[in-house]
Design a protein that fits this description.
The complex is a heterotetramer, with two copies of chain A and two copies of chain B. Chain A is α/β, with parallel strands linked by helices. Chain A has helices spanning 5-9, 38-51, 61-80, 95-110, 129-138, 155-166, 192-201, 221-224, 249-254, 289-305, 307-327, 354-362, 376-381, 398-415, and strands spanning 26-27, 89-92, 116-120, 141-145, 176-180, 205-209, 228-232, 243-247, 265-268, 273-275, 331-334, 344-349, 366-367, 369-371, 387-391. Chain A has two domains: 5-30 and 307-415, Aspartate Aminotransferase, domain 1, CATH 3.90.1150; 44-303, Type I PLP-dependent aspartate aminotransferase-like (Major domain) (Aspartate Aminotransferase, domain 2). Chain A has a seven-stranded mixed β-sheet with strand order 2-8-7-6-5-3-4, sandwiched between helices. In chain A, strands 11-12-15-14 form a four-stranded antiparallel β-sheet, covered by helices on one side. In chain A, strands 1-13 form a two-stranded parallel ribbon. In chain A, β5, α7 and β6 form a beta-alpha-beta unit. The relative contact order of chain A is 0.16. Chain B is built from five helices and three strands, in the order αβββαααα. Chain B has a single domain (7-120), classed as Sufe protein. Chain: A. By secondary structure, chain B is an alpha+beta fold. In chain B, β2 and β3 (52-60) form a beta hairpin. Classes of the chains: A alpha/beta, B alpha+beta. Chains in contact: A-B, A-C, A-D, B-C, C-D. Bound molecules: pyridoxal-5'-phosphate (2 copies).
Chain lengths: 416, 131, 416, 131
């Protein structure tokens, strides 16, 4: 049976909705956040209607049910990214908190003034600002793998960085390489396994910002050999308010805790405490229980549809979209060709500001994003303040791409 | 679409009447909206009786920010500076004649923010000026 | 019209549920987490089914709707605690994160080795471990307001601490007083306004752990004159995964940011960034949007029922419960008399461990909690490892108290 | 209630047969569950043929932790130490004859954890011993 996005759409209540003047919604903003299938919404409903209770310490039936649901979701998430153990999945609010957790714990325990952290020029602010804060606080050094004109990482510049620092006056080899697996602007899928292998050869630990890759590609953290990997539920059909950090067990074990409070402790006295074992050590206070349950349901949903099917569908639709967008006079696309990227098409439109493009399309029910997409330095690199961005997920269709293209012709007419 | 990108906005964006830079000027101020890269500079000459003798805007950005600036300058020439000081969010929305969500509101209000910071002689333009 | 908990119960789907052998649920564990009214569950459903989008940067209809809903909820929460402005409400995951936020930002920017932080002996781990971590990292000094036999704060010991430190060798007056407004074990409602006034006289900043007070008492942060105040949605009829920190504007303005990432910035370059204005400065990455919407709905619900009505009902039921529990031979209650406490009854049962009590009650559908309730030092102070705890909220009835008492008689029989 | 607090548990809790402390002993180990304050010490004498000659437990805590300890000691006297090493979670659940949620499971398994840490001669008792 071939993949049918029209069938998939029926699982998503919001895709039945109409906007202005009763036009159907054309949602092309899944890179910002995905929509949620009924199964995910209902899993959280069920939790609140039947089993809601605080977890871990409770003896009563509800508390046991809630604890089991919360931990079963963790197992599912671990399975989804092929983590060796669910103890290596730390629940966070989102990918941003996952990265900050590493910055506040592993990095503050291991990095000192002058230590080199390597990032890339295409990072989302979430994988940039935590390191800028650490630079300000601790005087670490930051260097950036450069991005080529066609939106790829320049691995030669990476090699230079790795080797330069081996004979660097201040501190030698890089200690940390933190990079995005897939750019939320260019769509570029970076060669993560290779970047990690090279980092390890140079003696560095790696943080993979997988906010865009886990939702769209089959993830295998063991094949990647990632040390830390961060992602958000809301971009992968799950709820807001929950994300995850995967980490290698020995790293997570050795790190100091992050937030202090209930559940992350084994024992507390007035003058001292002992942290809990993994994964609880990093989960302080009442966690996002219903959201974790929804996260588990999202993983079930994606698994049922099949990550390979999703990736193939996205590839097909992206190829089509890039082709059609290129035809439009005045449109300039950013990022590599379809074979090197995920379902993202960022572009500028000659003479029309991206905000105007997005707002005019919105009148036809077409939801795209305009702005710097939390990647201001990347936009600066390309000499533009903002782009328009259409993005595609499992529920998008070629007909929607056609509607987008028609809408852009209208914009052209209006500003022509 | 007419309610949103009213002809007047596209018209003022494509063919602004007050784009330029006055030299000499009595008041000059510039600011930008880092989120979308909109940039507005305003230069202004005052008359002896405390009215605006002439004014111009310069800059780049979206249709709403540029059209608002043109409409704003048009509306203040000949007006007492005190009246300029009392302009607010609603004044701009009335000129544009459209409703705006929070993101686009920032674009629409940039020129007023710049103008008021200049007229008040402030070092920095703040959002409170246009609330 | 008088308050009728039986009517209120109809708003809570879970209270219609049955547990083992088809017995109705008697939920006496709201201090751990409250149940959710349909209005809250439905508000989040509606959000996911109609308006789900990422917020703040979006121009399209969904993004504008979602942003408006997220910010309207903030207004409601601000109104609920009488904050001067919604800019002073920072969304967090829970009360625990709210307190940690203060510890990581204000405290790390303002406290140095030897500086005194005053806590109490009745703190929840969430208002203890963050300061123990800071003590280990920074060498701050911790002192504790003592708890009397009948579970009240000993304000004389507080005065001694405040004055002793004025002539203290290392650093003079205390810099911070962090205390719980209402104990989750003893139920004690502490004289927060007085504690704050005294702290201010001594030149200290205050953090109020209001995790138990905001859900149960009419809160007015301006009347209290609190500097920081932390609470969680899930204990006040709202969803898991969201909480709030209230702070005085000048403190929040002056503090460094906490987590780095999208939305908390005004501008990012490869080598520097400028933080955003309040409240966004402290909200990094995609926030718990649906949960914030649910939080707003919870505040609406509580407001509709009336916080004064809720407090009066809880007082009545607590008085009744304490009376009935005291009758049971072998039961020892902890905490002050009903007029000085909220709806919490913690007790030990001679010869029976709290875990056994809770588990036997659970067979009759009665959900209470057993353990140290994340207040291990308080239990140590009373020389016991654990207590059983029944707690009451707007939906509990006297009939449920009777069922609890009957259940305890059964326990007595079994172990007699 | 019979499924849960089976008579045997209440009986072993109220009237344990193997509560005590052996002196001299060949093996001694103690640990506690900080969350609920359960505490178990086990002392054990070995025979020349590598079997358990005698054993006792001491401590305090909930019915499940204390009854499990009594049942466990009862089951190992006379058994080869190698067999003791192979006991696991299921062995304890079979003795108790009830199902347990995650919190109470910790209570039930404390004595086995202590026993195995002692028999293996470990410095610390870890949860992995009883999985
Ligand atoms: C007094 C007190 N403070 C703090 C907390 C922590 O709340 P949360 O787990 O929602 O962060 C609780 C919750 O049990 C509490 O009762
Ligand atoms: C590449 C990348 N990294 C990180 C993030 C941050 O994710 P979140 O906002 O869920 O923390 C995003 C989301 O936009 C992203 O696209």
């Amino acid at each position: 049976m071939s993949y049918n996005p029209h069938e998939i759409r029926k699982d998503f209540p919001i895709l039945q909705r109409k906007t202005h003047d009763n036009v159907p919604l054309v949602y092309l903003d899944s890179t910002a956040t995905s929509q949620k299938p009924l199964a995910v919404i209902e899993a959280m409903n069920e939790y609140y209607r039947r089993s809601n209770a605080n977890i871990h310490r409770g003896v009563h039936t509800l508390a046991e049910e809630a604890t089991a649901m919360y931990e079963e979701a963790r197992e599912k998430i671990a399975g989804f990214i092929n983590a060796p153990s669910s103890k290596q999945i730390i629940y966070t609010r989102n990918a941003t908190e996952s990265i900050n957790l590493v910055a506040y714990t592993w990095a503050r325990a291991n990095l000192k003034t002058g230590d080199l952290v390597v990032l890339t020029e295409m990072e989302h602010h979430s994988n940039l600002v935590p390191w800028l804060m650490l630079q300000a606080e601790r005087g670490i050094e930051l260097e950036f793998i450069s991005v080529t004109e066609d939106g790829l990482l320049d691995l030669d510049s990476y090699k230079t960085l790795l080797s330069r620092t081996l004979r660097h006056a201040q501190g030698g080899a890089p200690k940390l390489v933190a990079f995005t697996h897939m750019s939320n602007v260019l769509g570029t899928i970076n060669p993560a396994a290779e970047i990690i292998r090279m980092a390890h050869e140079a003696g560095a630990i790696t943080v993979v910002d997988a906010a865009q890759s886990v939702p769209h590609l089959k993830m295998d953290v063991q094949a990647l050999n990632a040390d830390f990997l961060a992602f958000s539920a809301h971009k992968m059909c799950g709820p807001t308010g929950v994300g995850a950090l995967y980490g290698k067990a020995e790293l997570l074990e050795s790190m100091p805790p992050f937030l202090g409070g209930g559940d992350m402790i084994k024992e507390v006295k007035l003058r001292s405490f002992r942290p809990n074992t993994l994964p609880h050590k990093f989960e302080a206070g009442t966690p996002a229980i219903a959201e974790a349950v929804g996260f588990g349901a999202a993983v079930d949903y994606l698994t049922k549809v099949g990550m390979d099917n999703i990736a193939a569908h996205e590839h097909e639709i992206t190829e089509y979209a890039l082709e059609r967008l290129e035809e439009i006079p005045g449109v300039k696309l950013f990022g590599p060709s379809a074979d090197k990227k995920g379902g993202v098409a960022a572009f500028t439109f000659e003479g029309v500001h991206p905000h105007d493009v997005a707002q005019i399309l919105d009148r036809d029910g077409i939801a795209i994003r305009a702005g710097h997409h939390c990647a201001q330095p990347l936009h600066e690199k390309f000499g533009i303040p903002a782009t328009s961005r259409a993005s595609f997920y499992l529920y998008n269709t070629k007909e929607e791409v056609d509607l987008l293209v028609n809408g852009l012709y209208k914009v052209r007419e209006l500003f022509g | 679409m007419d309610d949103l990108y009213r002809e007047v906005i596209i018209e003022h964006y494509k063919n602004p009447s007050y784009r330029g830079h006055l030299d000499p000027h009595d008041i000059q101020f510039a600011d930008n909206n880092p989120l979308c890269g909109d940039h507005i500079e305003i230069t202004l000459q005052t008359a002896a009786d405390g009215t605006v003798k002439d004014a111009r805007f310069d800059g780049h950005g979206c249709a709403i920010s540029q059209a608002s600036a043109d409409l704003l300058i048009e509306s203040i020439i000949g007006k007492p500076l005190d009246e300029v000081k009392s302009l607010n969010k609603q004044s701009i929305l009335d000129m544009l004649g459209i409703e705006l969500g929070p993101v686009r509101l920032k674009c629409a209000l940039l020129s007023l923010k710049v103008l008021k910071a200049g007229v008040y002689g402030l070092g920095e333009a703040s959002d409170e000026l246009v609330e």
